[in-house]
Specification:
Oligomer: single chain
Strand content: 25-35%
Strand order of the largest sheet: 12-19-18-14-15
Shape: elongated
Number of domains: 5
Radius of gyration: 40 Å
Family: Belongs to the semaphorin family.
Distance between the termini: 117 Å
Number of strands: 19
Helix content: 10-25%
Domain Ig-like: 218-317
Subcellular location: Membrane; Secreted
GO molecular function, one term: chemorepellent activity
CATH class of the largest domain: Mainly Beta
Number of helices: 7
CATH topology of the largest domain: Immunoglobulin-like
Region (Disordered): 365-414
CATH architecture of the largest domain: Sandwich
Length: 414
């Protein structure tokens, strides 16, 4: 508060010079000084309505103070670069952990996401911000306009122009089922109780509560934990010449992901080399134009605070694009071949010929000869006499509406 008071008692900001640079105002400041509360002690002003016009004009032209109010350490608490959003709201919860108190910041954005950030002390006067979670609250990406914390219910209420959402302040179960993952999360709400990552309560008397938010060193914290996490194994198939994506997302956002590769079980495991064809993305490894030599066993490793753990093991098998199609029994036929035969016809009139052919094949009946839709009909004098006579009778039975003779009205005596 002393820094804020010092800034408001300092000089006002003023634009001067040809470039309109912000400089401290060196002129005379009117009385009462803008920013002071009206009182009868100084000037006998009951409200701001009684201020002189000079004070009002000065406040309009000098709305800023020259001296800034900097945070502890002289730098912003949390910086996010190259982000496709802006911060819109912030609310802070002070949490008691095993090694002290921590400020947990919930920051709302203009795209409907909430960032969970903690400020960890680093040295005497400096802090380090850690991003714990980034949640998409509103699917329509509406801007967050208000946030409130309920410490009693341990809930966060988020509001936008389209709705209100309720979120828990802590989700300890998402940090995995191992002591190392719970420790590396560095969430002051959570702690390892010997079996799972659960809510940390300072008043509970449990011997196996393990938490280290400041350092997050699993080598020291989980040294007595003999339960090893089982590595998940998956098998993936890729076609030669196509692209394949090996997905691996660590639980901790501060972890650095590395990949190792082993082609044969007898070969040594080596680190995957990145190039134009092998690219590491945010959610895994992208293999472009897969080749035969890419087949093998891939392992995804997460490194943080000098601790390395294997998250996933993928077995990649590459199939050649020239492999023959599987043979089917003589009485079995692919269901889509008849449909593809219809799509191959450039002329829609030919559909009338294809459909009866397909029907006759399925019902084992001979196909009757159908007239060619593209063939022109013969002249009238060359047609069958019976057909010609039927045409003439049909034409005589029609009434001609072109030559309509009006009839005279009948008299009443008729």
């Amino acid at each position: 508060m002393s820094d804020i008071r010092r800034a408001f008692l300092g000089p006002f900001a003023h634009k001067e010079g040809p470039n309109y640079q912000w400089l401290p105002f060196q002129g005379k400041v009117p009385y009462p000084r803008p920013g002071m509360c009206p009182s009868r002690t100084f000037g006998s002003f009951e409200s701001t309505k009684g201020f002189p016009d000079g004070v009002i004009q000065f406040a309009r032209h000098h709305p800023l103070m020259f001296n800034p109010v900097t945070p502890l350490g002289g730098r912003p608490v949390f910086i996010r670069t190259s982000a496709e959003y802006r911060f819109s709201q912030i609310t802070v919860d002070r949490v008691n952990a095993a090694d002290g108190q921590y400020d947990v910041m919930f920051i709302g954005t203009d795209v409907g996401t909430v960032l969970k950030v903690i400020s960890v002390p680093k040295g005497t006067w400096s802090n380090t911000a850690l991003l714990l979670e980034e949640l998409q609250v509103f699917k329509d990406s509406s801007s967050i306009i208000n946030m409130q914390i309920s410490s009693k219910r341990q809930q966060l209420y988020v509001a936008s122009e389209t709705g209100i959402m309720q979120l828990p302040l802590h989700r300890c179960s998402v940090y995995g089922k191992a002591c190392a993952e719970c420790c590396l999360a560095r969430d002051p709400y959570c702690a390892w109780d010997g079996t799972t990552c659960t809510r940390y309560l300072p008043n509970t008397k449990r011997r196996f509560r393990r938490q280290d938010v400041r350092n997050g060193d699993p080598n020291t914290l989980c040294s007595g934990d003999h339960s090893k996490q089982r590595v998940s194994e998956k098998k993936l198939y890729a076609v030669e010449g196509s692209s394949s994506f090996l997905e691996c997302v660590p639980k901790s956002l501060q972890a650095r992901v590395t990949w190792t590769y082993q082609r044969h079980p007898n070969n040594p495991r080596e680190e995957v080399r990145l190039d134009d064809r092998t690219m590491q993305m945010d959610r895994g490894l992208l293999l472009r134009s897969v080749q035969k030599r890419d087949a093998g066993v891939y392992q995804c490793h997460a490194m943080e605070h000098g601790f390395t753990q294997t998250l996933l093991q993928l077995s990649l098998e590459v199939l050649t694009s020239t492999n023959p199609a599987p043979r089917l029994p003589a009485n079995q036929k692919l269901w889509y071949r008849d449909f593809m035969q219809l799509l191959d016809q450039p002329n829609m009139n030919a559909v009338d010929q294809v459909c009866p052919a397909v029907w006759s094949q399925k019902h084992n009946q001979p196909l009757k000869s159908l007239p060619d839709p593209m063939k022109k009909a013969p002249p009238l004098d060359q047609q069958d006499p019976t057909h010609k006579m039927w045409k003439l009778k049909k034409g005589r039975s029609r009434r001609t509406h072109d030559k309509h003779v009006p009839r005279a009205p009948r008299s009443a005596g008729e």
